[in-house]
């Protein structure tokens, strides 16, 4: 079984590498000596600039510095949104009165994209860091809440009834049956929320910033510098991919007993 899993992982890695290589080749031929190449920089120029920006600053920071600024903002909003989302989702799923009070409000807020809150966030919090944290918080909160809620609702009521028949209290049922059953759903929500939070920080940094990957992209737009825009986009995509792998690895360690964690 272990050898099969190792072979499967190796096959996935090879397929991923081939897919990325094919995309870069397509990009190269599409922009090499064509009309598209006039408005879109080729991969050679972009990747050269990307790696050079590790030592030469773009603005006040190198590209790792911009990435770290963005990650610091994401972590603040993501952790706050995830914590509140888990608490609200689990309590809505377990307590009917909480569900009746908060579910309608949550369902009205959930479809609103975080960037739609930018004007109000600026009015409420100004143009500083709190506005960015608030937008990222919203991106994480909605996904985690829904998954935590779904996790509670997915618990087999027959299992809960059997536990109560054997004398388990509501608190014991909640801690021993409901919460463990929620964990895989919560991790699924956390993974989605982290991706949404990382995407939202780019929009948040476009409002007003002097650092971050969003700043790299918007500054490139202001100067019609497609190379810098693509450098920022590559940074966003690469870090987003690494964050997804990291979250999946954490889930595999903590939820090895579940289907998602295998």
Please provide a written account of the structure:
This protein is mostly helical and 262 residues long. It has 2 domains: 1-40; 58-254, MetI-like fold (Orthogonal Bundle), CATH 1.10.3720. It is 79% helix and 0% strand. The chain is built from 11 helices and no strands. The chain has helices at 2-31, 36-39, 43-52, 63-94, 96-109, 118-125, 129-153, 157-165, 170-205, 213-222, 226-254.
Topology at a glance:
Blueprint: H1 2-31, H2 36-39, H3 43-52, H4 63-94, H5 96-109, H6 118-125, H7 129-153, H8 157-165, H9 170-205, H10 213-222, H11 226-254
Helix pairs in contact: 3-11, 4-5, 4-7, 4-9, 4-10, 6-7, 7-9, 8-9, 9-10, 9-11, 10-11
- Residue runs with pLDDT of under 50 for 5 or more positions: none
User: Which descriptor suits the 3D outline?
Assistant: globular
CATH topology of the largest domain: MetI-like fold
Say what oligomer this is: single chain
Q: Tell me, what is the CATH class of the largest domain?
A: Mainly Alpha
The value of Rg in angstroms is: 22 Å
Structural category: mainly alpha
- Mean pLDDT equals 86
Q: Describe the sheet with the most strands.
A: none
> What is the tally of beta strands?
0
Strand content: under 5%
Q: What is the H/E string?
A: HHHHHHHHHHH
CATH homologous superfamily descriptor of the largest domain: MetI-like
Instruction: Quickly count the helices.
Output: 11
């Amino acid at each position: 079984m272990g050898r099969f899993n190792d072979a499967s992982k190796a096959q996935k890695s090879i397929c991923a590498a081939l897919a990325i290589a094919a995309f870069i080749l397509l990009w190269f031929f599409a922009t090499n000596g064509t009309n598209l190449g006039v408005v879109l920089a080729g991969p050679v120029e972009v990747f050269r600039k990307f790696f050079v920006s590790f030592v030469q600053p773009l603005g006040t920071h190198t590209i790792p510095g911009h990435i770290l600024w963005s990650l610091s903002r994401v972590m603040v909003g993501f952790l706050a949104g995830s914590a509140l989302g888990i608490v609200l989702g689990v309590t809505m799923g377990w307590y009917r009165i909480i569900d009746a009070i908060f579910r309608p409000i949550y369902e009205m807020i959930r479809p609103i994209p975080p960037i739609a809150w930018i004007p109000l966030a600026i009015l409420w919090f100004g143009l500083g860091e709190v506005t960015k944290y608030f937008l990222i918080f919203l991106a994480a909160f909605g996904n985690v809440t829904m998954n935590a809620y779904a996790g509670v609702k997915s618990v087999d009521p027959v299992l809960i009834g059997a536990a109560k028949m054997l004398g388990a209290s509501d608190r014991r049922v909640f801690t021993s049956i409901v919460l463990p059953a929620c964990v895989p759903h919560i991790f699924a929500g956390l993974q989605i929320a982290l991706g949404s939070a990382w995407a939202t920080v780019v929009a948040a940094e476009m409002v007003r910033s002097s650092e971050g990957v969003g700043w790299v992209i918007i500054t490139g737009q202001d100067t019609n510098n497609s190379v810098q825009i693509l450098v920022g986009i590559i940074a966003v995509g690469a870090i987003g991919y690494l964050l997804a792998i990291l979250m999946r690895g954490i889930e595999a360690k903590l939820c090895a007993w579940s289907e998602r964690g295998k």
